[in-house]
Write a structure and sequence with these properties.
The complex is a heterodimer of chains A (431) and B (264).
Chain A lengths: L2 H26 L3 E8 L2 H17 L3 E8 L1 H14 L5 E5 L3 H6 L13 H7 L9 E2 L2 E2 L2 E2 L8 E5 H7 L9 H11 L1 E2 L5 E3 L7 H14 L17 H15 L6 H4 L7 H6 L5 E4 L2 H9 L5 E5 L9 E3 L3 E5 L6 H12 L1 H11 L6 H4 L2 H6 L4 H4 L5 E3 L6 H18 L4 H19 L1
Parallel strand pairs in A: 1-2, 1-3, 12-14
Antiparallel strand pairs in A: 3-13, 4-5, 6-13, 7-10, 7-11, 8-9
Chain B lengths: L1 H9 L2 E2 L7 E2 L3 H8 L1 H34 L4 H13 L2 H12 L5 H8 L14 H26 L3 H9 L4 H12 L1 H16 L3 H7 L10 H11 L3 H26 L6
Antiparallel strand pairs in B: 1-2
The chains are: A alpha/beta (431), B mainly alpha (264).
Chain lengths: 431, 264
């Protein structure tokens, strides 16, 4: 063989060996990439990134591509992507939207190696599993026990100005008395600062429904599916809500209004409310956005002996049926459900744990003392039940009809009757 | 045409994107008749169009007439009026949320300086829709001014000269020469403005979310919510068909009333 040909042969041999080694290295160290979608709440993002970082350290063969979307558009984005087959492997999803995905066979049921059904029922609170359980299976893994209200954020500086102690009001009468001291009015008697802000979609719904339950009446009719809000207890509950604005004048629906459905915490954050009714998740938001604000979080008062309330199935992570990486995705979700990760996720986001064992973990209270008022009432929570269409029930249903009563456009009885008819129309459509 | 035909087909189905459409006949259209929110949306849409279209036409026509008489600086004034029309409607909507804010928006601050009480421009069921009309007019005036100016400048001068020779005064010139000869432009502007205002969406979604109490929940927003928030694609398609029908009827009426049957 000539020298030149020998050199060429050696060169090509060397290149072939290098390329082969490259392919070998790629297959040995290959990572499976899975995509997780979430919304852009800053506390949620921080918590999720922390758990993902821990998971990837323990599982270097799996890479999680975490993508976030604006909160307001997230549900629609998720639905359209799922329908068109362009969705992620897994997604954080509001629990009450999951039934429609279950019906459409678009989500995968949770395998037993992630958590068995018995363990699921024993470990997870009822409201966090209601909407994601169907025909003996459950779908996804809850991230939180969503407490929609049951607490009040309080501006301690405003309390000091008004000479009110830093504690929870003992009953609704005391809350109203404090709210009147804290409310500011202009020269024409219009509220310029709410003593007690509460008129948002979620909060009015939860206050009305829990008031009914505390007064001894279930939200549902005897069949357990249809609503029953056309009765004297419902009238009383709605009237109670309306009175804060109409009779006691401690709230302004104009100040609280922000495109139908904004949280009272937004009004509170702007300094336009001294007290605002909200779930404990606002603590994470307020700490993130207003770290210098001196605020507290105390329990709502309640009627009757015990603080019964309703709760939605909150944020849950699901695996889509169309995912080609289901095993890896479930590994990620299992990681989120592990004790330490789940606890830290709840602490950072200010959400109540879905796992019962975490709520008795002393580390939780040590790192998140704000959680105490909410932990005390968890045993009294009940899943609100199948809603059919969550947004219509909350927005066009409860919120709109309660606001009609508050504005005086309808009497409380008329509003309740119309609400009853509307809600059951939604349920029948869904069926 | 295919999207229109597909929308018409979908209006006879129950379809939530996640499962295939299911034929339900005309159930969606019967549901519309009993839907109180549809009636409120229809009312909001009709009121919006009835307020905004005539005011727009009158204001833009008067501005165009005035600008047509100006020789110097005409270009600058035209530009000033047209600038809002070049801005993104979403950005303008956000801007006006701050302008209307109560109590610290610009308008309310001016009111306070004048000794007037502040108003809840976007949160009062009575003021929200008129506030949106004002905002849309601010955005849209420039476009129609340009069209009217083009129409006015397209009228041959000899008609005015002939009329003046016959002793016509300014009002007679305007009523007997300008108005008839501007009719095609007027028809075009009214039709296009009405079509657009029937379909206006972004300001309602961004500034009021359709509230308070559905007072600004125009049909296009209700279509959007039904389609993408409630996942009722079939019902949303039925609503779209109704909206389309209204626009077609209105356009035909305009053509019948305003169409010019002669040429010059």
């Amino acid at each position: 063989m000539r020298k030149g040909n020998k050199k060429k042969l050696l060169f090509f041999l060397g290149v072939s060996i290098c390329v082969s080694l490259g392919f070998l290295a790629e297959s040995v160290f290959a990572q499976t990439k899975v995509t997780l979608w979430g919304h852009n709440n800053p506390a949620f993002m921080k918590a999720t990134e922390l758990v993902i970082a821990r998971f990837e350290k323990q599982n270097p063969d799996i890479k999680v591509n975490y993508q976030v979307f604006p909160y307001d558009d997230f549900n629609q984005k998720m639905t359209v992507a799922t329908a068109t087959g362009t969705g992620p492997d897994m997604s954080q999803c509001w629990g009450e939207y999951i039934p429609r995905y279950i019906d459409a066979r678009a989500v995968a049921s949770t395998p037993s190696w992630v958590m068995t059904k018995a363990e699921f029922e024993k470990t997870i609170y009822d409201p966090s599993r209601g909407a994601i359980t169907s025909e003996g299976k459950f779908y996804g893994m809850p991230l939180e026990f969503n407490v929609g209200d049951n607490g009040i954020v309080t501006n301690w500086d405003m309390f000091d100005e008004a000479g009110i102690p830093h504690r929870a009001p003992e009953n609704w009468d005391e809350l109203i008395k404090w709210a009147k001291k804290l409310t500011k009015y202009d020269s024409k008697g219009n509220v310029t600062r709410c003593g007690f802000a509460y008129t948002s979609t979620d909060v009015v719904t939860f206050i009305m429904t829990k008031t009914m339950r505390q007064l001894g009446r279930d939200l549902r009719a005897k069949d357990g599916l249809h609503f029953d809000v056309d009765n004297p207890i419902a009238y009383k509950a709605m009237g109670f809500l309306a009175d804060f604005t109409r009779k006691h004048k401690v709230n302004s629906i104009d100040i609280c209004y922000n495109g139908e459905g904004a949280g009272p915490h937004e009004v509170f954050a702007k300094g336009l409310a001294a007290m605002a009714d909200n779930g404990p998740w606002v603590i994470g938001v307020l700490q993130e956005e207003l770290p210098e604000l001196d605020f507290g979080y105390v329990n709502d008062p309640h009627f009757g002996e015990l603080p019964y309330f309703y709760a939605e199935n909150g944020w849950t992570t699901i695996v889509l049926e169309g995912s080609p990486n289901k095993t890896e995705s479930w590994k990620v979700i299992k990681s989120f459900a592990e004790l330490e990760n789940a606890r830290d996720w709840n602490i950072i986001t200010g959400t109540v744990p879905a796992r019962k064992d975490i709520t008795t973990d002393p580390v939780l209270l040590e790192k998140f003392p704000w959680m105490e008022p909410t932990l005390n009432i968890l045993p009294y929570g009940k899943w609100i039940g199948l809603l059919g269409d969550r947004d219509r029930v909350f927005v066009d249903g409860f919120y709109m009809h309660i606001m009609q009563a508050i504005r005086g456009e309808k009497t409380v009885e008329e509003a309740c009757k119309d609400l009853n008819s509307f809600l059951n129309g939604v349920i029948d459509e869904y069926r | 045409m295919w999207p229109v035909v597909y929308g018409l087909c979908l209006s006879f189905t129950k379809y939530n994107l996640l499962r295939p459409p299911r034929f339900i006949g005309s159930a969606n259209f019967f549901a519309l008749l009993q839907d109180p929110i549809f009636k409120k949306s229809l009312k909001a849409t009709v009121l919006f169009v009835c307020y905004a279209v005539p005011i727009n036409i009158i204001i833009t026509f008067l501005i165009a007439l005035a600008l047509n008489r100006i020789v110097k600086l005409r270009g600058i004034f035209r530009t000033i009026y047209f600038i809002p029309a070049t801005m993104s409607l979403a950005i303008v909507s956000l801007l006006w949320v701050f302008i209307y804010a109560c109590p610290k928006g610009i308008i309310n601050q001016i009111f306070q300086l004048m000794g007037l009480s502040t108003q809840n421009w976007l949160t009062s069921p009575f003021l929200a829709l008129p506030s949106l009309v004002i905002m849309i007019l601010w955005v849209d005036i420039g476009y129609n001014v340009i069209l009217f100016i083009a129409g006015l400048q397209g009228i041959p001068n000899h008609f005015y000269e002939a009329a003046q020779i016959d002793g016509a005064n300014n009002w007679q010139l305007f009523w007997n020469v300008t108005m008839p000869l501007l009719r095609p432009t007027l028809l075009f502007v009214i039709v296009m403005t009405s079509i657009w205002y029937f379909q206006v969406f972004a300001p309602m979604q961004i500034m009021t979310g359709g509230g308070p109490n559905y007072s600004t929940n125009v049909l296009s927003l209700y279509v959007y919510n039904n389609a993408f928030a409630y996942l009722k694609m079939g019902y949303a398609s039925a609503l779209s068909i109704i909206l389309f029908t209204f626009i077609i009827i209105l356009t035909l009426v305009y053509f019948k009333v305003l169409q010019q049957k002669w040429e010059y």
